[in-house]
Amino acid sequence: MSVAEFFDMGGYALYVWGSFGATALLMIAEPIILRSRRRSVLKRVARIIRMKAEDAR
Amino acid sequence: MFEVYRAILMRDLTLALRRRSDVFITLFFFVVVVSLFPLGIGPEMDTLRMIAPGVVWVAALLSSMLALERLFTVDFDDGALEQMLLAPQPMFILVLGKVTAHWLITGIPLVLMSPLMGLQYDLSGNALLVLLVSLLLGTPALSLIGAIGAALTLGLRGGGVLVSLLVLPLSIPVLIFGAGAVEASVSGLGEQGHLYMMGAILVLALLFAPLATLAALRISAE
Amino acid sequence: MSSRILNWFKFSSPATFYPLAGRIGVWSMVIAVVLIVVGLYMSFFVAPTDYKQGEGYRIIYVHVPAAWMSMFIYLVMAFWSVLGIIYNTRLSAMMTSALAPTGAMFAFLSLWTGAFWGKPMWGTWWVWDARLTSALILFFLYLGYIALQGAIDDTRRSDRAGALLVLVGVVNIPIIYFSVKWWNTLHQGATIKMSGEASMDPVMLWTMLIMTFGFWAYAIATAMSRVRSIILERERETTWVSELPEVRG
Question: Which keywords does this chain's UniProt record carry (chain A) (predicted)?
């Protein structure tokens, strides 16, 4: 099965790659969003601790 | 037990009737929405006759959503709700009383107005009767289910829109059987099946919805 | 008996659950990637071509797992909500809100792939088929939950209100499903069968199961990662958070 034939998917290329593409897109985007959310939470917590440390002094 | 129910019912009715304008707002909304559709879809009678049940029912659903906002907020703001929660009588009855009052104020006018709206869509006499009965069975269920959403979103900003987002998916069965009943009677299939289902949904809602509303009020009023 | 319950509850405190969630998250993401890669390979190269729908049917290997996951995640959210209400443990509510976005994503994916499958097979992007319609309503339930969580600032109230909404929703799902089925068969007669699970070739079935387990591991991984962020957000004032290596470093 040549590569072109594979991508053609028996004429259903748009539909098959449309659904697999959307699924792949979302299932890759979500972990990335989660990682950036984690980073921003850690940054905020660190800032809170720094502020508390300064108030304590 | 029954006096408490009657007391709450009377209290809420008198409170609502003092501000008579609120009663007419939901009714006016219902009439306007139903009359808008022919302007959008066109005056051909046969298409209108076909869409009539759906249109009237969706309009009834939306206008009952509209009125939910005021169900608990007035008492919540002036602290009466906390007193009710602390009252020795079972809160189930108090919630039932308030929802009945709400239904009498907003649901009944819709039911009485619906035959008139049906005439706009040239529905036959029998279909109008079935429309009336289906709304009579459906609007209390909508108020009961809506009360859960109203209690959950008590005192939240943007509460009005949020209530509809929460409650509309849950009231889809009522819409399906309500509109389906009229359509079934028009197409000669007979509407008993649909009306029985609506009765079943109403009984279910009557039993379980106040419990959920009660829990939601406890959560929100804390 | 009591000692077993005790250490089981040890994990209900965010401080002890936080590192555990990290480990589970990493492991389940590894399993998810492995399973999905195997599943993808099988769905394109191993699974035979469908006699009727040709290559287009391969969308089933994404559509069905996404639909199953969207329903399964809602049930898991209901499970955590019940736990949260009975034991009043804050962590269960955090798990529910951690699962919701992933569940909503899977619901949206099941609609998207359902539409992309409907177009070649039935000629229209959207078919008011009973299952697709119920998936749409499930998507609305997810949006309702997320909107409610977003609208309430006080976490204590948003936890319990969310839990109640999920329970009310899960009780209504069967009613909605059957009324939609009744409504659908009434208007369209026998619905167009999407795919005969029974007549599935075993290889097709196994491919779909592998993909489903892959999606399942993926959902656990994302839920764990999101619950860790939620824990950090909610416990930001506590000392154990301030001593965390990643915070101090």
Answer: Cell inner membrane, Cell membrane, Cytochrome c-type biogenesis, Membrane, Transmembrane, Transmembrane helix, Transport
**Res C199 pLDDT > 80:** no
E strand or H helix that includes residue A21? helix A13-56
At B115-169, the pLDDT tens digits run: 999 998 988 889 999 999 999 999 999 999 999 999 999 888 877 889 999 999 9
Give residues with Cβ within 8 angstroms of C239, minimum separation 6. none
Domain range enclosing A8: 3-56
DSSP string across C129-146: -HHHHHHHHHHHHHHHHH
- Chain C residues in contact with chain A using a Cβ-Cβ cutoff of 8 Å: 29, 36, 40, 44, 49, 54-56, 58-59, 62-63, 66, 101-102, 105, 108-109, 112-113, 116-117, 119-120, 218, 221-222, 225-226, 228-229, 232-233, 236-237, 241-242, 246-248
Query: Greater confidence, B62 or C187?
Result: B62
**Amino acid symbol at B21:** S
- What pLDDT, in 10s, does the model give residues C91-113? 999 999 999 999 999 999 999 99
- Evaluate whether C162 touches C94 at the Cβ level (below 8 Å): no
Contact B156 C180 (CB under 8 A): no
Q: Which residue of B has its CA nearest to C160?
A: B219
Say if A26 is an interface residue toward chain C (CB within 8 Å): yes
- pTM for the model stands at 0.90
Residues of C in contact with B216 (CB under 8 A): 161, 164
